[in-house]
Amino acid sequence: MSRPADSHCPYCALQCAMTLTPTDAAADAAAPAVAPVTVAGRDFPTNRGGLCKKGWTSAELLRAPSRLGAPLVRGADGAFHETSWDEALDLVAASLRGIRSAHGADAVGVFGGGGLTNEKAYLLGKFARLALGTSRIDYNGRYCMSSAAAAGNRAFGVDRGLPFPLEDLDGASTILLLGTNVAETMPPFIGHLAGAQAAGGLVVVDPRRTATVRLTDDGRGLHVQPAPGTDLALLLGLIHVVIAERLVDDEYVAARTVGFDRLRRSVASWWPERVQSVTGVAAWTLRRLARRLASGEGTYILTGRGVEQHVDGTDTATAAINLALLLGLPGRAGSGYGTLTGQGNGQGGREHGQKCDQLPGYRKIVDPEARAHVARVWGVDPDVIPGPGVPAVELLQSLGQPGGVRALMVHGSNLVVSSPNVDAVRASIERLDLLVVCDFFLSETAAIADVVLPITQWAEEEGTMTSLEGRVIRRRRAITPPAGVRDELWILAELARRLECTAAFDTDPEQVFEELRLASEGGIADYSGIDYAMLDRGEAAFWPYPRGSSGTPRLFIERFAHPDGLARLIPVSVRESARPRPADDEVTLVTGRLLEHYQSGAQTRRVPELLDAQPEALASMHPATADRLGIADGDEIGVANHRGTVRVRARLTPDIRPDAVFIPFHYGDEQAANLLTSDAVDPISSMPEFKTNVVRVTRLTEAGVPA
Amino acid sequence: MSALRIVLIGYGPVGARFVEELLPSVRNGSVELTVVAGENVEAYNRVLVAEYAVGNTDLDAMLVGDRETAEEAGARVLLGVAATSIDRAAKVVRLGSGEELPYDRLVLATGSRANVPTLDGVERHRRDLASLEKYGSSLVARDDDLPEGITALRDLADAERVLEAVRDRRRIIVLGAGVLGLELALAAAHAGAQVCVVHHGPHPMPRNLDRGGGQVLRAALRRTGITVIAHSRAEAVAYRTDDDGTRRFDMLVTADGKQLRGDLLVLSCGVSPRTELATLAGLRTGVGVVVHPDLRSWTDPSIFAIGDCAQVVERTEELAGQRVLPGAPSGLIGPGWRQADWLAGALTAEAELIVAADGDDGAGSSDRSPAAAPAERESIVMLKAEHIDVVAVGDVTADPWDDDALYPRRRVSQWADPEHLRYVKMVTDDGALTGFVSVGMPRTAAELTLLFERRGELPADRSLLLRFDGPDYDPAADADAFAPTTTVCWCNGVTVGRIEESAACGNTTVECVGRDTRAGTGCGGCKGRIAEVLSRAAEPDGTPTLTA
Which of A531, A540, B214, B355 is the most interior residue, by most CB within 10 Å? Predict the structure, then answer.
């Protein structure tokens, strides 16, 4: 029996530390359905030894009966057949070559994920640009972090989710959470809210009364419950009050920012009473909140997907940043602004080349110097590296279209559950000549693929992840993977070889990381000073970490990352036309998450304990709304718009506003909330609108037709 | 290519919004825009004048117009220059500076001025056509000069006067109990001034509130230390002479003989549109400049009016012959902005057509009539004040027990708690809100505001809306902390029931329960609660839970 391995949880960006101890079953690959490791929480600054339900049960997936054990190729009979790896890879390579020569390099696309290790994400970007020669690569982070990233980049010149260690929150007296339900999405996080709770200063902005909102009960804080889609107006109102009541940190604004005058004019017309009529939040609540935020005793403003996953998500995140800058929070000890990255490696995954417009180190693919640097590391001519591609939604819309992508490789993503307007995505995928999916299980997307390649899970592989704090941490191998599965690094190397790519594709994670260090050197997200040995010694490594430095736990102490060192205050405004208003018989659909499930549920719906707790998608609606529609608790209902219909049961709760209905998006098929979401995107970040889609709700009869 | 020459008179918040919306056309050269601003300050948000008047905010925070951007785009902005007349035949605007501005389209956004009521001892000007023709441009764009110690509250100079009195904690008499007067009274009282409100109606905000709401508001005002004198018509003012020889306000005398002494009299008796330019130019005016629903003057199709100076009336043969026309400007900013947006859009479209016609003198074809600007619903009135929350809209005179055959679907619900200064009345027609009053219930008011704006249907149980303001507000069905379904450990989704079950199986310590159920093994924040559940479970006669 091998030794315990110190690793981190396979799920969210909190990356709780855990120790994996192999059990007797580890040696016996044939032992079915018995977890080959036990999981224990490990002391670490973020989770302090704790784990949530998802983390505790994570080992159950290693030997889950539904785990794939050999490559699957769809035969002429339309069914999947197990094949050897050589056969599968030969087939994929031959198809890719054929499609490429017939339709050009951009006819092959790659869709990555925010759960991939840094090494995989880096190598996937390199594989797309060099082995495939395509510009068509993007990833599911486009659905999570892109708005916050765009807002951070334009305001600060850098996008690191939390520009400070998570522990800094412990000393805060006021924490404003905008559109994030951490009590369910990353529960051990809430330990860091205790200080603010004790000071009565935990403020949660959410149209739902979530588990996180309950943390504000009993005088521990405040729940602000705006109508869905009005977050931007709310923030403009807060900025208005801060300016009108002279709560601005004038010295800080003068010394560290530019753009105040225009910003001030842009919010002069958002006085609290006007904001009240748009958001449903009382004017006095707004004033009280603004004063509390400005009380100067340690204030943090944190945003989540609730305010970012909108067609005006970048502007909304920008407004939150403007508010933080006016109060002098970023870069000041004991205060700050941050965005809570969601996916396990959502931070690292957005830094090293999975994004369509990006090269490793958070470099811009259109920047000639960046291209020259990366080309040198890759040993190619800069001209060989393709230019910018297109963001996720556009990439998917192009599938099978003239001039579009005809073959798609999917890594760490379950497109037909997590993408907006799922029916349209399914239709796009059907137009493809080839869909290759790498996954542990036959996810909804793998199930419609032509080739499925089974891959290793977290406990079976080495690598690094970058947590929501911008801290690089080690994922370590505890057990040997099952015989039939392969690491994605190996798959990419094998395909590159078959595609006769001469660039190096290492299969050893440490060697890939060494290459990533070089490629990121001098970039915004500079990893060049980090190596496996120091991570293995437990050193805390926050990027940027240039060679010879000791890293950057706290950004912005002295300067922001723009060349002049100043932060940008960028005026933003509410676009009335941004989203349709619900008609009388319609409500607003809000999508979101549950404690028990992660992302598309491809993993967590296969853990019996998690599935038993939340076996199906339930639509939460207010009793008053249900009463009006003749719906009782537990009734089968149809939630529909012109994009599709979701069939679920109703759960009546006063925890949601009467003008909204909530459906978690973790489920597939006819319960997929994203059947209803719009693929309209934010003009800057290309983030789709996940949070405010207009729907009609009807009770269904037993036959499944509207009553 | 001929650019459409637009002259805008007035650079208040509505004018500024119009400019902002027109900038793309100014940039691309299809519109040539000149703004005659009048006041020598940039456009500011008048909604905040009361705040400014008590020192709660600075002028900087009130500026809305971005003159720099407008000028960068190519617009000409003339600050401190007034328009003195319009020559419609020549299509030019004459300025105080002697300059003449030719226009293809003229937009009036001249706003309104504070009313000066008839008071013995205070002079005021008439601005009918005869007076205007007699005194000419000396009356245009000028407000009445009030004696020392008397001020309106409309512009920054007025606000400065009030500010001085507030800073010195003087005694301020506010004449009028409309929204603006009350806002000032409350803000000044909050800032430490002694304030007395005099009005002739039965209760404050008589135009907006029903009797119940008005009475509760009056009680609330009194509780803040403001003296409220109702049923009193102001008749005269008396003066005293200061040591330095200045004659200044001394007291207000009411029709029933009350003599109210004070240091400053603030007139808050409503506003009237500034229509003198239009009147002199021979445009039809009523309360304001009379315009069609497309904001075009009844008299001259090249001239438009928006905001506080515009009286929108659909022209019919019958109405055209009448002396008094229905309607009046709302006096609120929201409708003005919507008019500005809409007119800028219509003129942008017109300018682009002209450019497309390339040289064709399209500017003359002014009979091309764009569709009407969106009809305005009644605007919500909110009293902006620190400790009193009043929101009202619509006709709220109906009572719950009224049986009006004209409105068979009308329903009225009401909640009155005068002792705690709370009052709500909701008037619906077929379930949708047509009017409401809310006093002292801010969260309820916020929800009602939103429902009214969105024309949403009220919940069948109206009391749902009242509960938001309860001190014990907790909509959760499982508010009972020890109900079996109440979650104790959020990290692991463990309920009270599950912990009790575990305890029954012999897990009697927090650690044992943690091993069995994982409760407390996440962030650890719930360990205290687990211990509580365990100690209750250990009591043989544990207090029964509400749901068990």
Answer: B214
